[in-house]
Amino acid sequence: MKGTLPYRIAIVLVVSVLGLAWALPSYLSQDSALRAILPEKQIVLGLDLRGGVHLTLGVDVEKAAEYTLSQTGEDLKTLAREKRIAVYNAAVTPDGRLGIVLTKAAQQAEFDSLIQDSYGSAYTVAERQPQGEGLRYILAMRPEYRKEVERLTMNQAVKTIRNRIDQFGVAEPDIRRQEGNRIQVQLPGLDDPQRAIDIIGRTAHLEFKLVDDETKPEDARRVGRDVLQQRHLNPDGTYLERPIVLHREAMLSGEAISNAQVQYDQFGQPYVSLTLNASGGRKFSRLTGDNVGRRLAIVLDGQVYSAPVIKQKISGGHASISGSFTTEEATDLAVVLRSGALPAPVNVLEERSVGPSLGQESIDKGITSTLVGFALVLGFMALYYGFGGLVANAVLLFNIVLIMAGLAAFGATLTLPGIAGIILTIGMAVDANVIIFERIREELRRGLSSAAAVAEGYAKATLTILDANVTTIIAAVILYQFGTGPVRGFAVTLTLGIIASMFTAIFVSRVLFDLLPKVKNPVAGLSFVRPGTAFNFIGNRRVAFAASALALLVGVGSLVAHGGPKYGIDFAGGVTVQMRVDGGLDTEAFAKALVAEGLEGVAVQRIGMEADHEYLVRISEQQGLGTDTVRDHVRAAMTAQAPDAAYEIQRQEMVGPKVGADLRESALEAMFYAVLLIAIYISGRFEARWMAAGIMAAGLATGVYLLDLISVPMSLLIVAALVITLGLCWRLRLNYALGAVVALVHDVLVTVGVFSLLGKEFDLTIIAALLTIIGYSLNDTIIVFDRIRENLGGRKRKDFKEVINASINQTLSRTLLTSGTTLLVVAGLFIFGGAVIHDFALALLIGIGVGTYSSIFVASPILLGFGPSALPGDEEKDPAPEAAQEA
Predict the structure, then answer these.
(1) In terms of C-beta density within 10 A (0-12 exposed, 13-18 middle, 19 or more buried), how is residue 626 classed?
(2) Cα separation, 204 vs 341, whole angstroms
(3) Which residues on neighbouring strands pair with residue 188, listed in sequence order?
(4) I want to staple 482 with a disulfide (CB 3.0 to 4.6 A). Which of 342, 550, 605, 666 is the partner?
(5) Which CA distances in Å does 299 have to 56, 70, 305?
(6) Partners of 300 in beta bridges
């Protein structure tokens, strides 16, 4: 290795320069001269750190298809008229097809030819029904054409929304299409979500229709007229609506508009001035010239804004909308008219907004908790490992630089859970160093020189480190795939941190040791676990099993008593408002004040630490209220309950029932796939039985597919999948995987049970914590399993119980140290991280402790009960029955 030292030093230097080059721009001032030579990319802060609005919009593509069918019907009537084919009553049927009546059946051949020539690639004639002397045709969209309509609708919706936001003046908006005909919109720095919704979500379907002043509203439907509402602005700012009768046919549509601007009349009242394109100008001139003395209604999204009398022919291509606007409303209307109409209605499925003060507070608390955790780890490592601890601290600092560089280089978004991921990475990065240093100490005790002990320690620890970290990466990748928003930010930083920590711990720290080979004992320091320790862990497995069974029974009992997990807004839907109140708040009295304001089913709870004085107001999804309505009620209740109290609304969220159900299902899928992939990886790596692992995966996929065919609920499907996984592991003798999976299920259930006992809610951040626990718990288990495999020496022995016990004792120091350092940084996150991340940190504290316990008292005894899997070429008698009998 010494011969390669110059090359390794060069690699470290190159990576260091690149890391600093990508990380520095995020911290330099805008006028720094270094910006001229450094990359332009910087770390992007998520909305939870800089404030802003997050929206998930659902596009009603079915309405777009209906509009396309309706337009096809009108076009078909025009084409038929030109061919002298008599047709009438073109209308969309309730089942989403187009009906049109051919007056004379004798013209069937001509009409069929017209349909085939003009619309043969888009429609098929589904039915021909006799109707009087003619035929009623039913046309159905071809599947491929419907998909194309939906694709064009989504593309146009994204483009229109982007145009509106660009004109609204929001810096660095993020608009992207998602699966399920959804659009995600993120608007940083915006603190008025309702105005954003009004601008983005308005369809802006503009029509000019003639008013029928001769027909009364109650007679309108009988004579083929429409009745809409015309709004009038009262002096006190409220609106009054009155019915108005209109002709159904639109004389002109919004497609004729080329520009829209806010103007003011002689009384200082705002109105929207419209400029029409050439074709629209000609149509408008003809329309006004033919209807002097009649009223022309201007209809926007089914609402009549004004209906002025046409006094004379209007030429020049100009029109106006006036009568009922505030200046802000007129401005917003001009924006949506300039950007064009949406091709289909959009619905707000999810809304989240964070105030700028909470964003800055989250940054401050994130930095504080990071520094606290970092300082604790640095001090502990230097004290415990001496020179080796200083090396670990140096690579830990380098690790942080690489994470920052990776976030900037890949354009990833740093969120508050992402900061938590960095903090967690600090604890987990120590893990790799501890594995190496404990190995070096073992080799030194065997009498090797410092240089030889370092070389042997790195050689034996490298594969173990890779195994342990790959499983955590699996969990992080699945979390990114199934997560959303800030949770994805956590997955990104955790993955970058793990990759960086493996590089710095395995490669960079080795370079530092090789640069200073004369250090006599490079890992001298404290030791909590003395060499030769021989605790009888396996002998106490029955007590541990009883303790685990009791914990599981209590947890499951709590879940049953509470009717299942207490789902947060992410999964159950509803509206939440987070607020800070100086001096605190009586939650019960405030809840009563909210009920008095008309909010039924409201819940008020304190969040975070008691000194934070932060509270969460939650309304269930069944109430059907928006965040603006709930916010107004909260303000009214505060005025009534505590008129002199200073308070701030920090965050608002609304999740619709569809999004909540989808997120809940995705969370369960994420947990399932994490356990499955980890089981497959362990089977292949530890038992060299990739074929058996593949059979397990195929059998599980088949079972899940068959259950899904009979519409088994997702929750039951996941339970069935876990049972199938455990059964296949047992049947195929994948015993390492069996022990690991049982331990993972144990850790998740205990953590969920504790949360249920504490009355905590389950949301996306808690799912992120559970997946992290899965990865971390397995990390511990793999360390023990790897030592068991090493001590077996590739062959099974009859003293398997002693092998497991010895392996647990040999890795005990590493287990306690890594768990301890990780708990230190997570405790800093729990205390200093703020209310938003409080429960996330609590779940990690519980899970890491339980995971450490299960790697010793659950996974290893399970492996003992079934014995190691069969190894190629092993001719000894299978010790499993004897081991099971001993157990």
Answers:
(1) middle
(2) 5
(3) 52
(4) 666
(5) 27, 19, 6
(6) 206, 303
**642 membership: H or E segment, kind and range:** none
Q: How far apart are CA 284 and CA 304, in angstroms?
A: 18
Q: One-letter amino acid identity for 204? A: A
Angle, helices 764-792 vs 450-482, to 10°: value is 140
Q: Which two tokens stand for residue 639?
A: 């005025």
Residues 845, 832: Cα–Cα separation, whole Å: 14
The residue behind tokens 């069944």 is 622
Provide the token pair at 597: 């304001």
As a residue count, the chain comes to 887
The pair of structure tokens assigned to 217 is 């509203």
For residue 631, what are its two tokens?
Answer: 């916010």
Q: Which residues of the chain have pLDDT under 50?
A: 870-887
Radius of gyration of the chain (CA): 34
Write down the number of H helices and E strands in the chain: 28, 23
Please state, in angstroms and rounded to a whole number, the distance separating the CA atoms of residues 434 and 385.
9
pLDDT of residue 750: 93
User: Which of 302, 124, 289 has the alpha carbon at shortest distance from 204?
Assistant: 302
- 722 alpha-carbon distance from chain centroid: 24
Please name the residue ranges forming H helices in 619-689.
627-641, 657-687
Phi, psi of 605 (to 5 degrees): -140, 150
Minimal CA–CA distance to 607: which of 834, 825, 416, 359? 834
Query: What pLDDT shows up at residue 168?
Result: 67
**Which residues have CB under 8 Å from 113's CB, separation 6+?**
none
Instruction: Return the axis-axis angle of helices 835-857 and 764-792, rounded to nearest 10°.
Output: 20
Q: Token pair for residue 841? A: 């940190």
| Strands laid side by side in the 296-300 sheet | 239-247, 225-233, 303-306, 296-300, 206-210, 252-253
* Tokens (6 digits) for 136: 């009623």
Reading the block at residue 512, the tokens are 């530092």
Cα–Cα distance for residue pair 188/518, rounded to 1 Å: 54
Q: Quick one: angle between helices 859-866 and 800-810, nearest 10? A: 160
Quick one: DSSP state of residue 411? T
Closest CA to 495 of 506, 515, 479: 479
Could you tell me how far CA 359 lies from the centroid of its own chain? 18
Name which of 434, 410, 428 is nearest 471 in CA terms: 428
139: β partners: 98, 125
Cβ–Cβ contacts within 10 Å for residue 847, how many? 26
Residues with Cβ within 8 Å of residue 881, at least 6 apart in sequence: 867
Selection from 360, 384, 380 nearest residue 372 by Cα: 380
- Provide the H-helix boundaries in 759-834: 764-792, 800-810, 812-832
Classify burial at 145, counting beta carbons within 10 Å of its beta carbon; exposed 0-12, middle 13-18, buried 19 or more: middle
The residue type found at 823 is L
> Of 564, 573, 772, nearest to 663 (Cα)?
573
pLDDT of residue 277: 86
Distances in whole angstroms, Cα of residue 33 to Cα of each of 28, 302, 868? 9, 56, 62
d(CA 458, CA 450): 12
Cα dihedral 340, 343, 347, 350 sign: negative
Token digits of residue 349: 């499925």
C-alpha span between 670 and 488 (Å, rounded): 13
Burial class (CB in 10 A: 0-12, 13-18, 19+), 663: buried
